[in-house]
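Supplementary material to the annual report.
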Amino acid sequence: MSLGFLDLRVVESSAFIAAPLAGLTLAQFGADVIRVDMIGGGIDYGRLPVMPSGRSLYWTGLNKGKRSFAVDLRKPEGRELVRALVTAGGDSGGVLLTNIGTPWLAHESLAGKRADVISCTIQGNADGTTAVDYTVNCATGYPLVTGGGTMEKPVNHVLPAWDIACAYQAAFAILAAVDRRRRTGSGAELKLALSDVALTMLSHLGVLAEAELLGEDRPSIGNHIYGAFGRDFGTADQKRVMVAGISAGQWASLVKACGIQREVETLETSMQRDFSKEADRYEARDAIAALFEPWFAARPLEEVERTLQEHRVCWGLYRPVTDLLANDSRVSDANPVFSRIQTPGVGAHLAAGNAVRATGAPPGLTGPAPLLGQHTDEVLSEVLGLDSGAIGRLHDHSIVAGPERDPTGGARE
Amino acid sequence: MSLGFLDLRVVESSAFIAAPLAGLTLAQFGADVIRVDMIGGGIDYGRLPVMPSGRSLYWTGLNKGKRSFAVDLRKPEGRELVRALVTAGGDSGGVLLTNIGTPWLAHESLAGKRADVISCTIQGNADGTTAVDYTVNCATGYPLVTGGGTMEKPVNHVLPAWDIACAYQAAFAILAAVDRRRRTGSGAELKLALSDVALTMLSHLGVLAEAELLGEDRPSIGNHIYGAFGRDFGTADQKRVMVAGISAGQWASLVKACGIQREVETLETSMQRDFSKEADRYEARDAIAALFEPWFAARPLEEVERTLQEHRVCWGLYRPVTDLLANDSRVSDANPVFSRIQTPGVGAHLAAGNAVRATGAPPGLTGPAPLLGQHTDEVLSEVLGLDSGAIGRLHDHSIVAGPERDPTGGARE
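Predicted assembly:
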């Protein structure tokens, strides 16, 4: 069961990451998210990684807890059904989430059917040109300062961070517009460009003003934390940990845990710095790291872990996802945020519910991703009020389809 | 002027990135966000980068468009004022956003004053232990696959991506709870752990199921895009571009722009692949990249840019932030999402408003970050209804302070 905060229906026509993740966010708080797809699946339905069945773990991860409506989007009758779904319902309906600009779903046209419709369109660039996470990220300067990156050898992030930020920002914007509609009755046409998400973040994080006012680009400092002290260290048994001494308390506990108070004081004196100030720790980061290195290098992870935990140090262990899954209880049934679900065409697996916990409420679990068209008939009946005869005719004319037309054959599982 | 969608007051007691960015998000949609700080500033008030005045570009970036209430949080009277601010107001008030767990702001205690209060607490780990972006990121596996990272040499991201995701998720959760309160009258105690934000994302992106069901960790493939074709290429004049051929259309336009249709067909035949399928392009990524490399290496950026744009290729240029600011009109007054603002202690600079654009509404601009205590008196008067005598007594007893006590002396500007 989702964290049932929302009384809202959202029609999602989407591909890739940002828009589907926005829809997932809404679904995880209780929205009825109806994902509309071309019969046979959209552009990203078979994206890697895939199961032997052909079912995509990428698609099924991003589309958990939604309903699927499969329709022939090339046919006028199919398009009219989608427009009817978007504009149906009272206060709880009338919301479109999309990253696929198409004239027959244009806001103005939808507003002709329902004046208070809310549409949120995710774009690449605001001028309508195409952009994806990777082609936006290169403009932000981050690849030139990540992992010792340079202009000759920039380092792309692998986590699609801008898609993620864009997704949550879009989901938030929809709720804000719904809130306003409840108060004022007005709809809204919202547009959000992925590039604007990234470029505005540079302002929020102070990086843009730094470039403008101080004429400085953030330095490329590898795994050091900018502005304070923190870095990765190797243990005697070839494990690796990240430690952070950002706040004064974190710093003090780290120094104490490693028992190098005297060495640190000596360094402070010789460098004429005050390491209770994070900026001074940052300035002296290499010299400080050299004091910590031997401590970690001399101890196996087990001892490092025990000591850091005893002293409440802020730290973490580097590990691949397979190791995380096998050995970190935060990613297991022991964490109420996770549960085991059964996804058609995939099987049973651990999956994340809502990361937000509400005291006194059951955990916000999320159902599996649907098969394509799994909810076509119930949506036609519940939302559009069609009877079984009308629904049958739509199938007969191949305007809609049920799960039997899912190309991954997941229906057979 | 903010995009005035929300009729909401939020009291923010925070530090670092996630909670302040959540507050900024709410402010940019019209919420009255009152940031409560210790007189003289909290733990991150002077964080790098700083202006010669001592004013932090980091803090002023994250706290644009908020009101500042400076108060002695050690004094019982100061704490009582903050509790009164949190619980004041009708439907539009009663919301606390924090990442600082403190008993006198505990939800239960606030609910004793106002039953329908909504609190959202951002934590490190759900068990209350400390964690920051960097110590969470190492657990996600991403540092082992970013920039050719390995266990011996992991690559931390520099963008605090998990803080950003956490911020937007928290802001969304608050709106969802407000929406529910408007309908049902119920408050909510919300908790969100940074580690849960990151670890649940592994499920949403399919990475967790991949590890569990296929026993595979994502490979470390440098700047290649996973699952499709895309990579960075150097130009004749030592510039560098990122190109993406994720969709079939993007791929076709890229091949056409570079005029290597024949070479690509020959490669397809020799490798027995079908490059209209993104998975096949991904498999053959190195061989494909070798076909593109000479085209880019033979041309200066100017020609590369012109040709890629003519063919509507999905691409971007790597550049540091200083170059972005000087040469990319997306980060300038020409983009309505940005405007020039005057921040006390900082001066005039370009700053980002709301990345979301609402058709027919003026751009969602955001005012500058306040001086500490800049709005203390007006908040006491407007929100708590105190008269000037009462406000004066609070100053006399050093329970509250105005901007004259801002340690950066910004008030003198």
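The first helix of chain B runs from residue 18 to 28.
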